[in-house]
Amino acid sequence: MQDKSKLIVHAESPDQIIKALDMIYPLISREDRRRISRLQAVYLATFDFEGLWMKVNGRSIENVLAMCDEFSVSVEVEGEVKGMKYRLLDGSGPDEIDE
Length: 99
Hints:
The protein has helices at residues 17-24, 30-56, 61-68; strands at 72-81, 84-92. With 99 residues, the chain is an alpha+beta fold. The mean pLDDT is 84.
C-alpha cells in the first residue's frame, strides 16, 4: 500500500487547487483532512486561491501537514442559517506568501 503522506498536491492553476485537494481528501485520514481543511480555509481567506496554490501546489501531504503546524486556528463562531452551516475562524499564521 502506498504511503499516503507521500501523495503530491498538483494543480495546473490556482482555480484548480480546491479540486486537487478534494481528490486527495478521501485518501487520507479524517484528522489529516480536518487539519488540511483548516489550512485551506485560512489560506483562502488570507491569500485567495493564488496564495493557497502557491503554498501547497507541488508539495507532499506530509509537507502540507507540516505547514499546518506553523499556525493555530480556532473556531470563534459556528452556526446555521436557513440550512447553511457556517464557521468563522480566528487564527494566527503567516503574514506573507513565500515566493
